[in-house]
Amino acid sequence: MALVKDSLLLQAVRGSLGDEITIYERNGQIIIAKKRGPSKHKPTIRQLEARYKMKVAAAYAKAILEDPEIKAYYKSLAGPGQNAFNMAVKDAYRSPEIQQIHFEDTTVVVTAKDEFRVAAVDVRVVDVQGNVRERGKAVLGRNGVNWYYHAAELPPNGKVIIVAVDLPGNETVREVLLS
Q1: Residue 25, C-beta contacts closer than 8 angstroms, at least 6 positions apart
Q2: Angle at 24 (CA atoms; ends 23, 26), nearest 5 degrees
Q3: Dist. CA 101–CA 89, nearest whole Å
Q4: pTM of the prediction?
Q5: Residue 87: which H helix or E strand, with range?
Q6: How many helices (H) and strands (E) would you count in the chain?
Q7: Using CA atoms, how far apart are residues 41 and 62, in angstroms rounded to an integer?
Q8: Cβ of 72: how many Cβ atoms within 10 Å?
Q9: Quick one: CA dihedral 70, 73, 78, 83, positive or negative?
Q10: Among the four residues 36, 67, 79, 165, which has the most C-beta atoms within 10 Å?
Q11: Are 149 and 161 contacting, i.e. CB atoms less than 8 angstroms apart?
């Protein structure tokens, strides 16, 4: 890859020259690179899964960027050489992470992070027979990372199921057994 500076010849040229090189512009700089061709190997299962995941992420980005507020949000997070579409694809590609779950009396405290933003945290309290005793949405704390859910009761030997959801709708589920 080569970066071109002050070339009148390449100022207006974009595209591929034969099967050898490709000339394109990114962030105001002209770049000359070797032209890539299709792979001669059959894709693996993981490659096919990654392609599908990228296809879904790109479709999400295309649809969500029609909302001017969300487009402005993603654009504000973009760095040099990036745009709102890149950020939306990146957000859709990764799920949120539930880092920690602890209890303060009957309050469930969930530490959830996402590279962009965790949109919601849902909590279900399940008894020992598997019946859902209560469910609801946790409230984001002042620190912007901890989510709080005040349960009426935490049944002994039951479990708490936490679902963290990000802006694109990716979910991460964690279960904690109560003793």
Answers
A1: 14, 31
A2: 145
A3: 28
A4: 0.74
A5: helix 84-93
A6: 3, 12
A7: 30
A8: 11
A9: positive
A10: 165
A11: no
Nearest to 115 by CA among 81, 92, 83, 146: 92
Q: How far apart are CA 116 and CA 137, in angstroms?
A: 20
Count, residues in the chain = 179
Residue reference for tokens 């694109």: 168
Stretch (H or E) spanning 21 = strand 21-26
**Token pair in block for residue 93:** 């590609």
Each residue's pLDDT, cut to its tens digit, for the chain (179 residues) gives 566 666 666 666 778 888 888 888 877 777 888 888 788 899 999 999 999 999 999 999 999 999 999 999 999 999 888 899 999 999 998 999 999 999 998 899 999 999 899 999 999 999 999 899 999 999 999 998 999 999 998 888 999 999 999 999 999 999 999 88
CA distance 132 to 150: 15
* Alpha carbon distance 7, 113 (integer Å): 46
**E strands of 39-170, at which residues?**
97-104, 107-113, 118-126, 132-137, 139-140, 146-150, 159-166
